[in-house]
Structures are given as structure tokens and as C-alpha cells.
Amino acid sequence: MSSLSWDARKARIVVLGVAAVAFLSKMALAAATQGPADVRFFYGFARAIALAGPVRIYAEPLPHLPVYNHPPLASWMLLAMEKLMGIGVPFAPMIRFPACLADFLTVLLVFEVVRRRRTLRTATACALGAALCPVLFGTSGYHGNTDSVAVMFALAAAWLLADRARFATAGVAAALCISVKFVPVVVVPLLFVAAWRVGRPAFARFTAGFAALFLAVWGPVLATVPAGLKANVLEYAGGNFSFWGVVQFARWAEVPEPYIALVRGPGHYLVVAAIVTLGAWLAWRRPADTPVAVAVTLGTLLLLSTASGVQYLAWPAAGLFLIGLWPGLAYGLVVGGVTTSVYGMQRPVHWTDTEMAFGALGWALLGASVAVGVHRILTAAPLDITRPRTEPRPWPAARPAAAAPPGPHPPAAAPDQTARPARVEKHP
């Protein structure tokens, strides 16, 4: 029998219902619109993969397409979609289906993660906020890149590791997140750190799950066309657009272009290293809050990103609700207004001054949210990694009782076998 209370079951039903409505709404948007240029690019990639194969695609010239910077699992996904096109499935809504489905699953993850750490009411509100987040409606229902899919696998890996103690499955999810899109590579080290903090058996199972999936998906490409994979995927630095973040701020401040080029070139590796270090440190400090550490790391990645892309705005959108309801709502509403505007006018790479001003406000809100997440992790009492929901947390050893004075003592009362220890207070 489920250990969920009736209130928790009702809350889960509400979350499921709203998430399903949001999913159907996004798919309706996908069916009614052609989407941005990325939809056409993915169509071209799918046709090229059908001719060259999902492995050799990294070595093939694509004269009328941008750089094919997607990891190997995305290649297999596009090959499957090309086959489905052959039986009449329209490509435009199909390419956006994975992101919409990923958002649905992410909402459930937000509910489960927050429910372990906050009140049921807060968990429900955060999950509903993630389901209705305007940023995700635009990036998943209209744009349809694989960013939301990668984020979903990253959050799932953290939840499986920290809350369910499914270490091998968590390793598989961690490998999947970078096999769909390479961006979440910044969270993989902190997942390994969290698994190490649990213990060597957990670390071994996590590593085995990660290695098995990684070798199965990446192995053929690494063995066949390693140079193409390295150039297209591992060294890809993002697009050349500038309408969000530190590069745009630098240009507003009239920083000389050679310095900006340095930051966007070799300097971005230092930025990535700092982000990875922050995430790993947070996971070491409090492995029980690994999902929150993942959210903070993805938020920091977008905060310090030297590349701009409207779909990148999806990276922290759901994870901010793990930090708190207000961070998620503030970012979702302000940045969601920007995505609605640029997508509605079908010019995602050309922002007006007003859109860039609201983007700057969203960037500031993202920075404040990341700071809140770091503060909550660092000020919480240190705890070991949590157990699955069906298992109680280990209780601290009782302090030795003071020696009793000599003399007769009343007999000790028989222990109440039906009594249960009070629930451990969970830190926010």
C-alpha cells in the first residue's frame, strides 16, 4: 500500500492534471505553428542523418546547415523521426514533442523533490508554477530544441541519487542528460561527488550505470569520428548572437571587442570550470540537496554564459522552483514575457531595446535566485544523503545516560511497541 497520505495523493492528482493540460497546450501550440529556424535545421539534420547515418554525420559536410553540435543520442532520435516522417507524421510538431513531454516529467520531479524538503502546499505550488511557466511554453511548445529534455534527465539523476537511492539508474540518467545535449555536462561532476559522499558501493553503482550508457551511445562515435565529435560538440562555444547576459552587458559598457572575444574564446573554459567547482562544492557540502545543487549550477551556467539563445532560457526555468516558489515565479514571468514577445513576432535572434531591458531584469532575478539557492544549501545543517521515501532516515545515536545514584529505583516502564519516533524536521 502506498505510504502517501490522502492529502499528498490529492496534491499529486492536481499536479498531474495541470501538467497534462500544460503538455497538451504546448503540443497544440506546436501543431499550430511552424516554429523558428531551428525546426527547419533539425529537419535538415534528420535528412542528412538518414543518408550518412547517426555516427558518420559528424564527419559529413553540411553546406546549407549550421554546425551539427548535438550529441549522439540526438542523432538517433532524429533518425527515428525521419523514419516516422516516411509514414506521414509531420515533422514540425514531432520535433517539439520530446521537449513538451520532458516538461511534463519535470513538473512531477519538482513536486517530488520539494515535497521531501518543504511543505506539501509549497511543493504543490512550485510544481504548478513549473507546469505553467511561460518560459517553457515558448521554448518547448514553440522552439522545440532539446534543452528541456537534457534538464529533465539532469534533475531526474539528482532525484534518483539523493531521494531514491537508485544509484545505477541515476548514473544512466546522468549519461542521458549529456547524450541529448552537452550543456548539462556542468552538473555531472557534482553528481559524482554526491555519489561518492554516499559511499563506495553507491559510487561504484552510479559509475557503472553512467559508463554503460555512455559507452553504448558515445562509444561508436568516439571510435569512428572522434575529431568531428570533438570539433562539433565538445568544443562548441554557442551562437554568435548577443542579446542576453555578460557579453551584452560588456558591449553596453563599451568594453573593447578583443576582450570580449577573449572571454568568449579561451576564457569561457575558465567560466565553465568555476561553475563546475561551485556545483561540486555544494554537493560535497550537502549531498542531501543534490537536486537543489543541480538547479543552482544550471542557473549559474545561464547567468555566466557567453553565448545567447532564446532556448537557453529554459535551462534554469524549472529548477528555480526547487530553490523556492518566488524565484521560479519571478524568473518565469519576466523572462517568459520576453520569450512570448520575441517568439510572437517570430524574430528570436533580433531583440528590441525593450526586450533586452526586460532580459537584463530577468538576468538580475536569476542572479538573485542563484544566490538564494547557494545560501540555503550553505546555511542548512549538514546531513548525509537521504534514504528512499519508504525508509526512515537513520536516527542519531542516543547520548549515554548519566549514572544513576545508588539506591532503589522504580521498575522501568515497558516500551510501547506501537509508538513511532517523531518525524525528523526537514530543512528547507
TrEMBL record:
Secreted found in the keyword field: no
Entry EC no(s): 2.4.-.-
Principal EC category: transferase
Cleaved signal peptide residues: 1-30
Keyword Glycosyltransferase: yes
A Pfam family annotated for this UniProt entry: PMT_2
Domain Glycosyltransferase RgtA/B/C/D-like, first and last residues per copy: 69-222
Record's keyword terms, sorted: Glycosyltransferase, Membrane, Signal, Transferase, Transmembrane, Transmembrane helix
One GO MF term: glycosyltransferase activity
Ranges for region Disordered: 388-428
Protein name: Glycosyltransferase family 39 protein
Transmembrane feature ranges: 87-111, 123-142, 172-196, 202-221, 265-284, 291-314, 320-344, 356-378
Biased composition (Pro residues): 393-413
